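Teaching assistant's notes for section 4

Start the section by putting this record on the projector. Ask students to predict, before seeing the second block, whether Malate synthase G will look compact or extended. Collect guesses on the board.
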Amino acid sequence: MTNYVTRAGIQTDPALAEFFEREVLAPLDLDVNQFWEGFAGLLGEFAPRNRALLNKREELQAKIDAWHIERKGQPHDAGAYRRFLEEIGYLVSEPGEFTIETRNVDPEIATMAGPQLVVPILNARFLLNAANARWGSLYDALYGTDALDAPPAKPGGYDEDRGAAVIAQGRKFLDETLPLAERSWANLESEDYGNLIDQEQYVGRTDKGLLFRNNGLHIEVQFDREHPVGRTDKAGISDIVLEAALTTIADCEDSVAAVDAEDKLLAYRNWLGIIRGDLSESFDKGGKTVTRELAGDKHFTDANDTRRSLPGRSLMFVRNVGHLMTNPAIRWDGEEIPEGILDAVVTSAISAQDIAGLGKYGNSRKGSIYIVKPKMHGPEECAFTNDLFDAVEDLLDLPRHTIKVGVMDEERRTSANLAACIHAVKDRIVFINTGFLDRTGDEIHTSMKAGPMKRKGEMKNSAWLRAYEARNVGIGLEHGLSGRAQIGKGMWAAPDLMGQMMIEKIGHLRAGANTAWVPSPTAATLHAIHYLREDVFEIQKGLGDAAKLDELLTIPLADGANWSADEIREELDNNCQGLLGYVVRWIDHGVGCSKVPDINDVGLMEDRATLRISSQHIANWLLHGVISQEQVMDSLRRMAAKVDQQNAGDPFYEPLLENENGPAFSAAKDLIFKGVEQPSGYTEPLLHQWRQRRKAAF
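Reveal the predicted structure now:
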């Protein structure tokens, strides 16, 4: 039981209150008592509105469930279905022609195109790695991954043959992106250095080499005859460094397990460390203690001998949680407050130190705070967020629309009303994106009672998904996001399959996305090659109109499917293995994002969205009799044995099969067998419940 302190009627965890007052509010010279009074007033207005919006979600879902139940056994009538959604207010009228009016947006978001990282805010080391991924070594990225089409490195130190292949690939890349007038970079000699500064894309000299620019991104060609690579290179090139992760999202949501005040305080401390510029983390590497800190800026001298600099770090967003969850860190009026409101107030107050110029490096050069808001259902909830951010700006004495918003298009009611959602935040929107896992989870839950769904693999070729991906870009472009905001695409989940990523992920650019998520700094460096090769903003000019709404509303039912017993077992095992592999880390260790082996032992970067799609898919098949409870339990036990085997080398791992009544296995069962009744199919309520029990036992 938390021993709260009281501030203006708000019960607050004492450690959180002390941190907030001394380390966040005091440097801003804000009156602490006045702030808490204002916070209480804000809660008085927005907590009831938050509850009302959640109630509306449930009311709409109940009506949709009833509509499907009444028509059980009948062919789906798409026209009648759309009219029904309009009648109940699930679909709203289009807002008409408009263009977003967002101002003071940093170029990394508005006018540059490049990779984006999402990193769990609770892990300081990962957070620092991501923030420092603004610049990455192409040579290292190629040498250490299968993106290089060459035999693997031979053991025993540096492999000169693989190194030569890296250098050859690097020269080919330079010829593609920085072509020389009369020769190839492969033929460059040391005496040719001077001619490079006459190259049209030349930007200036750094302390390590020459800086160039293509498609808005920078390339640093480093020269060093003392370097092991540069010493044997005929031009003395020691590395090629790419501007890579332009933006990073520090995530308080799906990639973390934050269930109480202790967890939230760690999240907020790490965010403050990023904003102040003093976050550091020490760890053991090869028997030595290594301390990681934020990188400094990259300085150069331009062609006019003027000293300039480029940011050395990603521009940072912070992702708050959605509207659903509450957190015991703060209570008001006898209840836990909505966690999304808590995040909005605290992360904005921390970011206000950046606006006040109190950080070592600074984040936004335009005086903006960037918050990604997930899991909003439709324009009413977007309008609520807009009003909430207005209130937070007033509470912190910030100019209107200082706080910018990224809208995650991952809920069906948002996708179906995307133009109206954008309109609701048109003065502060800087980001929209798509994501298969959460969006499919909501697709299944919304139409849960309509019938059994297709297999997950077949979902990826569904009409609704193609329409979803195309509409997100088309509607974003129609309302002026190009050159003002990011249009993003989802994560490449396999960090060890960089060669395949390089083949497939360029499709995101060609679809019109000026950013896309990657799972690591190395992946960001490699994905940057795509943006250096192709001009997304030119691609956007040639794209057509958005896909039709009727296509988006096509329910992915498995009409006429006659799956074999083996196919059903394969699908069920795939879902259960992925669910268990992730849940055991979430519940037992509080790890919200990690590389989890899939059923084929391929490591995938998983977060909570994996649970949503897997648990909802099993719950749907269970509801409609495709599978039985006995089949689910059999699969869970067999897949628990596989997950135990996959984690056998972890000395802190507790086997699932030996703890079937323990929190992790119990959580997995609940996610499936209580899946139909979970609000919007979300996994957070059950995960938080079982994680809190696990923490209380230690």
